[in-house]
## 1
Amino acid sequence: MALPLSDLLMFGSGEKKLAACVVLLLLELFMEGAEAGSTNQADIDNHLELGKDFLARGQLSDALTHYHAAVEGDPNNYLTLFKRGTVYLALGKTRFAIQDFSRVLELKPDFTAARSQRGIVHMKSGDYDHALLDFEHVLREEPQNGLVNEHYSRLRPAKEQWELVQHLMNNNDDQNAIGMITQLLEISPWSVQFRQARSDAYLKTNDVLSAISDLRQVNRLSQDSTEGHYNIAQLLYNIGHATNALKEIRECLKFDPEHKLCFPFYKKLRKVEKQLVTGEQAREQKQAEQCISAGEAVLKHEPEETMIRYEAHKLLCSCYTTDEQFGKALSQCKQALDIMKDAQVYCDRADALLGSEMYDDAIHDFQSAIEIDENNARAKEGIQKAKKLQKQAERRDYYKILGVKRNANKQEIVKAYRKAAQKWHPDNFKDDEKKVAEKKFIDIAAAKEVLTDPEKRRQFDNGEDPLDPESNSHGFRGADPFAHFQHGSPFQFKFHFN
């Protein structure tokens, strides 16, 4: 029987294309009638008809259900078995497809379409010996079969290349092995053996993400094994991807909720992942205390895994800096950078160094960040800010004058101002002490003016003194410092307290 549409299946580039070809093939087979002597039982015919309808709508799993029923009703109908095999193939269930095609050939050895299909599945699965046997059998019957001839001509060179790959890997030449396996996968994309080998080679070259990508394909081709999900989860966790690892381990538990490896790993992973997510959210929302608590919890739950601990140190580096606990921040930043150099961590540590007034070291860290990421805007702006702050350090620091943190809110600033103004009011002092108090009081008033004015505070935080006459700003310096106060004397005013 001529099956021109079956040739299309040989070059299906994906499940959708293959499924479409399957639909056309089966429609053609239905129109040709039951050449193989299929039974006339009404229920079998009904299942076949329903299977065809589901195929037409692209519902392959539903179609497969009805072909199962049809095969059970007549297990010796080679044509129905062939149809089910093509649906298996469209679904990527290669092992079952081969079983059906093999059963077809037991029932009808001269059905070359089934033998061609089985050879193609063997070839795409990397089983070159069995593919050669099937193609040679077809070519004895159809020596002019162009597609089978083309496939056949590629098999022996591919087989030799696989032998060379194994030699390269045995000699630790993994980089060249990866390139050659990639070529083989163009011929045999369903080969578990090839993908596993390339995954192993990627791991040996420290390309973990590529290794995981291949392992996902191995797992899919192996019908989602629990072992596969566990191995992928472990690799993801090893590189610090806790959230993705948790998703993977949950897939394992779907198959076996009490899995001896997946379940205990899940319990630990769930705690770590929750704290990492909580910490990151707190960091983004500037909730330093909650962020620090989460980061410390991660270090407690995971005492060994380097990259998970790196994520915790990185988190703590940022959040301790935000909370102006600069000593602790520098310690956490160092521990993170000892594990992996990262532009963000360098910038966080540079900010902690700025807070500690270590301007040269801060500039050095910002430069290190630029060496990793030459387009890092934060680092470039940080260098300019550090230089301005270094220059500003020779002048007044309004935060220090009022004794408040750099992230203090307006209410905290006003409260600190009132307390300092009461303490250093010149009317409380005499003689030389009065002169010192007057200087202190002027600085206190200047600090309040700058830090309670959003625009002036922004300028100061960027390393500029808005009251410095050199910056052409209008403020205390270069003008009458007491012009801001009412009454004849600058010190004749009242404080109003709640």
## 2
Amino acid sequence: MAVIKGPFLVFTLATAFAGFIGCAVSYDRPLARKDISMPQPKELSPTSPQQVHISAVGPDRMRISWITESSAPAIVEYGTSPVAYSESATGSTSSYDYLVYKSGEIHDVVIGPLNPNTVYYYRLSSDSTREFSLKTPPADFPIKFAVVGDLGQTGWTNTTLAHIGQSNYDMLLLPGDLSYADFLQPLWDSFGRLVEPLASQRPWMVTQGNHEVEKIPIVHSTPFTAYNARWHMPFEESGSNSNLYYSFDVSGVHVIMLGSYTDFDPDSDQFKWLQADLRKIYRRKTPWIVAIIHAPWYNSNSAHQGEPESDLMKESMEGLLYKAGVDIVFAGHVHAYERFTRVYNGKADDCGPVHITIGDGGNREGLASEYMDPMPEISMFREASFGHGQLEVLNATHAVWKWHRNDDDVSVVADTFWFRSLSSDPACKV
């Protein structure tokens, strides 16, 4: 897939600088399942598309991204019948260098306009040997989100992905820490191949975590190189100047993806963008608001306490989300599951968002199993298990959340919670 020389050099640098992005932690974790690696299938040619994933761009368009080993056209042919492609679109091609690694050709094409809730068949780079299909989200309620953080590439990741694939979801939300490449760039390629069966069929909307930073002082000073090159999200359409934070509307839900590892203080571009984005929300069109961060603002686990990405970001932005009537805030980072009551400024508040930590996708570092005792009154449910969540927004007023534990490789619903939208609650002025 890519040129890589001196892997020992890369590993040594990665180990030396892991502490700069918070990979080194001070608490003990149980071991996760073994790492897995997805090599390039031997039957693929240098111009065959691989690592295919899609993301939503506005209400009726999709971005399709893929990688080829050598040069190939950035073209997508698509239609509503297999092999019969009535439409085509062209896009751009790029690549990136990271130390001694050079990526393959990264292709990025936006297709549309597309009909809602419709299956489209497509092929990439004029390669007739691989046909893919995708389903667009519905135009209105109901809509089902799969939510999973800190995925990684382990046996637990495989189990989580299998359970998500059985859920008939419309869109996946991922609050950071995707591949756990941690400087070893071929692991980004392995991750792309691992998630392709799901990510090529439904839009995956992601934000960054600490494992995406991949900044090494002096030798590679630019952060998020691989993440920004491989996972282009629709930040331009939301008025953002950074791929690290953006928003979009889907089926009556306004989703805000925030960046825990870029500036967030009141003088920052992200803070000013968030202010402007919240002012533009029209609750009759999008009665639900969901926000995604990586480092949780509320956390009763012993892991990741006192980090500025949590505490200072909460101090800067919690008031903005509260005043706007954000319904739910999803986070990752802590490798466990926890759901809080509606909360604001550290106290239960019926007009505050529900905070949910869902950093349990299957990472290689294991689970964060030590919780504070006693359990805080604002914490409703917590458990150190791998799993994923499903948020089904049924209509403008009600939604149901279910957390699925990976219990002996069987998807078990361990926590269920019914929401009423804050926009429908007369006691909350939104």
## 3
Amino acid sequence: MANDKTAHWKDLLRKRLASAKQDGKTEEEKKAEETELFTKYYTDWKGGEKGEDDSFKHIPRFYYRLPAEDEVLLQKLREESRAVFLQRKSRELLDNEELQNLWFLLDKHQVPPTTGDEAMISYESFLKVGEQAGAKCKLFFTARVYAKLLHNDPYGRISIMQFFNYVMRKVWLHQTRIGLSLYDVAGQGYLRESDLENYILELIPTLPQLDGLEKSFYSFYVCTAVRKFFFFLDPLHTGKIKIQDILACSFLDDLLELRDEELSKESQESNWFSAPSALRVYGQYLNLDKDHNGMLSKEELSRYGTGTLTSVFLDRVYQECLTYDGEMDYKTYLDFVLALENRKEPAALQYIFKLLDMENKGYLNVFALNYFFRAIQEQMKIHGQEPVSFQDVKDEIFDMVKPKDPYKITLQDLVNSGQGDTVSSILIDLNGFWTYENREVLVANDTDSSTADLDDT
């Protein structure tokens, strides 16, 4: 059958070509006609062989072009449709009254005996509650969710409180995602810096722990808060962060922790987003800015922390980081602080590694280590200390990191070793090196102090 069809369209093609020779057409016209005929007959032949399957004509559209800047009507239509969609999604979430009703139903169907102080529920009762709780709760009452929360209960039950907390967390995540999406101007699932600034600015009045902030400080607070998100979640400096990444990290939890009116002093001090923490960072910046021009020179930054960062390292900071006429602004300073205060984190190590990798080779060799450690040796001489041998320090660094290549240390080697913070401290900060060199004495002193405290009690 296929051979007959092939012979048929070949004959037709030959006849057309033969007749074309009599027409006096140009070569280009003949070639165009030949191509058109071949395409037509070949398509007919392929269709005839495979049947009338034209499902390819019904592929759903999967790409929609974004409206251009001058297409105002289309832009407005898109914004309104997104707003309606988000409102509908918001209405699908459980409200406070529905959550209270869910708790009442779970408590009513608890199955004895209790495990400690926790009320438990069996799978059969779990399904009954799911039937009574309403359509909004349906997605929570599945075998998969039950299995996730099932631990070592001898009766095969799960904790009611754990399940309720799971529901609460899911509802909170969806609420937060919808809230963040309202600030997603592009509607592409990410927030730009200005979008996140608007979100945090409008969030401030809802956080009791920030009630004492003066409005004149709001812009500095917002800048301080936003930098943490972008420093850790946008390592490639694209200028935007996925909303999914914001939800997946713990930063939003820390920020919304400020809703707690009774947050302890210790929690506030360890929370980057708290008022005391933001004021501390900004206060340090102002104290370093001796000429009060709103920027930091290399000499001014050299007094940061204990004032023991090496001049070689600071030179690299001003070579690699964004500066204005050789001086650093507050936003660049925040990146610097976040890197040095979080040296165990991969994003912070990436920041420091880029400064240590002078030749942009992607690894640190013995020359690079020696270059930075010489500045530590010079500082030791200035302070009347006997310089430590570089060979000894180099061997210790390679022993700590255990790189894949015995002569090169990559960023991934530093991250994998778990010693990146120690290695960076040894190379850039005299105080950090001194702490490392005297670690055994410091540990012994801490142990003696703890023993003395116990004796006193």
## 4
Amino acid sequence: MIDKDDFRPVTRSRRRATITNVKAETVQPRNGAASGVKSASKTPEFLPKNLQLNEDSKRKCDQYDQMSCHKMQESMLSSASSFKNYRGILNWCVVMLVLSNARLFLENLLRYGILVDPIQVVSLFLTDPYSWPAACLVIVSNVFILVALYTERRLAMGSISEKVGLLIYIFNLTVVMCFPMMVILKLPSITPVGGAFALGIYTILFLKLYSYKDVNRWCRERMQVKARSLSRSLSCPSPRSGPSSMQAQVSYPGNLSLRDMYYFVFAPTLCYELNFPRSESIRMGFLLRRLFEMLFFTQLLVGLTQQWMVPVIRSSMKPLQEMDYKRMTERLLRLAVPNHLLWLIFFYSFFHSSMNFVAELLRFGDREFYRDWWNSETITYFWQNWNIPVHKWCLRHFYKPLLRRGAGKLLSQSAVFFASAFFHEYLVSVPLRMFRLWAFMGMMAQLPLAWFVARFLRGNYGNAAVWLSLIIGQPIAVLMYVHDYYVIHNQDNPAVDEALYSH
């Protein structure tokens, strides 16, 4: 037998020979043999064995990678994932919303029948077809417009002093706020809806005339200090490029004309300027689309209110009278969905369709009537972006003047909320002829809510808090006002009691 130890020297010698051969093959010849080596290196039989092993290992790794099905990645619904396309989930939510509301609407029809009555809508505005008190109240508002224009002309001519002009404006603006309120409270023929419409017109007129006063005063102050550019006021925009720059620019006091005044009165803005941005022409297709939307959504609002809102409100009176908190909560949640849907329809109908219709008709160029309030992560952001004309007026004529007079930022913001709360209560309590301060307290409650959301909630949680305040807050105020109106005006009426408690 052969001993295994006899093979050791032979193995060592073979290894040495292999190493020597590798070294000899890796040495490149000096005398013009490089081309031969290159051509030989392209074929596998001339490659070194260690390079062949590397290529084999790479092929094996590639084959292994092709068979592998795992890698480092996050779940799509995780916050660490970069996935952002949730369009399918949004479509699912829309489908579920439509189906759930279709069920509620069908249940409403089976239980109450068809309640839509166009004749009843007319009765909300008129009690006597030959008497139009709310419309007459709106026509009388032209008197206050002419008083403001006449006052500005006297001030521009120097016929009256600034102090006298200020006193006239104070009296004029005070009457604008108090006169319609007194008429509505003293004249029973004005319905709550008609009174709310007239008060809305007078409130808009009050804000417009206040802005008209301020801007013209700024123009006079510039003229008094002999500013370099006397042809433009602080409110005038900077020179533009494009077709709009070819329009004639108006300078003070050339703006004090009847045409300029009434253009501002009808323009969809609350802030006065001597030269508004103007579009080149009226787009008839755009105008007709907005008109169709106005008519359609107005009818939809009326129909949904009669068919959906009114029965829920009627069924809520008995739990409110009996202070049944469980049933009150159930009625509140039932009212939240139709109330919020009607609010969204009103927002689109008024801030998009109606205001764009008026702007297109007057060729008014600034169409920023709202911003992306639906993405609000704070209460403050919502109130700054859902109603841009009011926000611009508050910023220009109320918030910044308070800051310039030394008031702090928090005090100025609180003052703006206080003024907004006053006007909300003014537009609700006066037409209903009762003062319960629900709207006022609801607006003032936005201050602590805004602080809480901004401090403790962020991102999607803050946005959800904003939506929740809109969906739940408004129905609470609606139920409170309807209940108090019933208690004051119709509690002793058996017919009304039977109509309310029968549902």
